Amino acid sequence: MALLLGIDTGGTYTDAVLFDEERGVIASAKSLTTRANYAVGIGKSVAAVVAAEKISPADIGLVSLSTTLATNALVEGQGGRVCLVMIGFDEAALDRNGLREALKGDPVIFLGGGHNGQGEAEVPLDEAALAAELAEKAGHVTAFAVAGLFAIRNPEHELRVRELILQRSDSYSVTCSHELSSKLDGPRRALTSVLNARLINLIHHLITSSESLFAEMKIDAPLMVVQGDGALISAEIAKVKPIETILSGPAASLVGAAYLSGEKNAIVSDIGGTTTDIAVLENGSPRLDADGATVGGWRTMVEAVAIHTVGLGGDSEVAAVKSGFGLALALGPRRVVPVSLLAVDYPDLVQTTLDAQLLRERWQDNFGRFALAVGRESAHLAILSDLERELLAELQAGPMPLEKLVTRRKQAAALDRLVSAGLVMIAGLTPSDAAHVLGLHEAWDRSAAEKAATLFARQKDGRGVPLARSATEVSDMIFNALVTTSSETLLAAALGKDSLLTPGEAVTVLHAAHREDPHPLVNVDIGLRLPVIGLGASAHIYYPEVAARLKTRAVIPGHAGVANAVGAVVGQVRVSAHASISPTDNDGYRLYHSGEPLDFASLEAAAAEAEKCLTCEARELAIEAGAAEINTKFVRRDNIAHINGQEMFVESLLDVTAFGRPRIAR
């Protein structure tokens, strides 16, 4: 029986599990994620589980990878610079679905062309305008996204634009919107395409570095990647459709939670370094969001687990913000490197800097904070400003205290842009540091955490009162802030959209229920009906208290810290092909699918052809995605309108899903 290797690459840790199809998890390991070269952290974890069981790498028959990197990048606003090509749209389309905000100033090309709702070309594609625009923008972007008007009815113009871009340079990656979604709403397809294009370099780097690593380790097995709906796809597909991997880590954690806990119905909360991901298990399966995953505030068209993701994790940036005359703690959404972790690798720099800052009486905003370079992607370097290049060059020798690196406002803005590009990270106080101060976590340098917390506590409010009296007191405040925010987020996620109470009202009730001075006449209480499955390396620290506040039980299963990696290997390949049928003006029926539209005289003839085409397409997609034995399921939904007592056919929606376990080398 072949062994399966599951890997999860998160913002802080890279986990690996060795899985036997009969015995379950037989070994697990954790290593720090190495952003400059992900293969280093992956290699350490894989080597640890291989050594623990004393197996030969040749015994591994499948490698499956889940990751939160795409999710984290969207939450933190990171990614490459892209160019969006809009075919048949005007500039007003940018103001729909947050598309303009998502572009963040990246260039847009508007072209004549596009199709109507029947899949017929409205005007010819303006190839001359495209050539002129490409000549101007070449070399200033890392990838292209292409969205055509009614491209899901007929994708010929999107495909032609991609062909012309690649003729100019095959080094570009080009995302076509019709390949990511079969749904209407062009601006949202454009948004999804932009996000996909922005993520391609990140996920491509992760996968290619992993492939090189496995070749060096003599692991000759198929490589799969977890999608946002928990299904598996081949690494080759993930390289060109990285948007499919948003919520990959959370989806894998749900699959792993069901396997590890044995719970059929529960709320799952997975706390990582950057985000907390909350979702619901129903009858042992993740609840899916057919409307599209929302991550980092962007509503995509990617079908994924119905998940509530917030920028709250063990490595969330801790800040003190003004609240009236006082100060209040704020956590996240940006992830920073914990000071206690930075001190493990750079003890002299961190300790000397913190000691010197502790001797100074007046607090400065950059106390206890450092900057470090985490990668040198050539695609990013090509579009950096001179000041950004200078700052990055200074950091190549090693981390620097922010008070020495940033002495002018322009430098602060340039540093923020480097952080957004994923080339630099900030190190500062985090909940993980607070957990070290409180003795709840022992992996890194506690003394550095105490010094950073002491500095942070010295901040004064408008009345001159310090935030806290000691490192322990401010760490208690951080712990309680994380528990409180986690409880509020769980409650809001559980309520969802259909409730008598809005999430905001429920949070108000939760606060009232836990006031130190309860109301003398009214008993206020609120809680969850389902248990909370806590996942993540720090779940055991926070979730017993979170569950207690929500009047439910906490389930922290064995291997909770590597549930994502477990979910990566126990899942299966599942892909779908979609089509629709609409009536035509001449009493016929038109079938819209992945190719050019087809016309039929009867609805049943169109439906029969749709089932045939979709089954063939879904099976081919499943084979491409890495499935072995494939099963298919056909679903047809006819939408009928009732007008003046008569039925009128509106459209038919048809889907074929192909599914099966991935191929395993034996």
Automatic annotation (TrEMBL):
Domain Hydantoinase/oxoprolinase N-terminal: 5-166
Pfam families to which the protein is assigned, alphabetical: Hydant_A_N, Hydantoinase_A
Lineage top rank: taxon: Bacteria
Domain (Hydantoinase A/oxoprolinase) ranges: 189-319
InterPro entries: ATPase_NBD (IPR043129), Hydant_A_N (IPR008040), Hydantoinase_A (IPR002821), Oxoprolinase-like (IPR045079)
PANTHER family membership: 5-OXOPROLINASE, 5-OXOPROLINASE RELATED
Protein name, UniProt field: Hydantoinase/oxoprolinase family protein
Source species: Sneathiella sedimenti
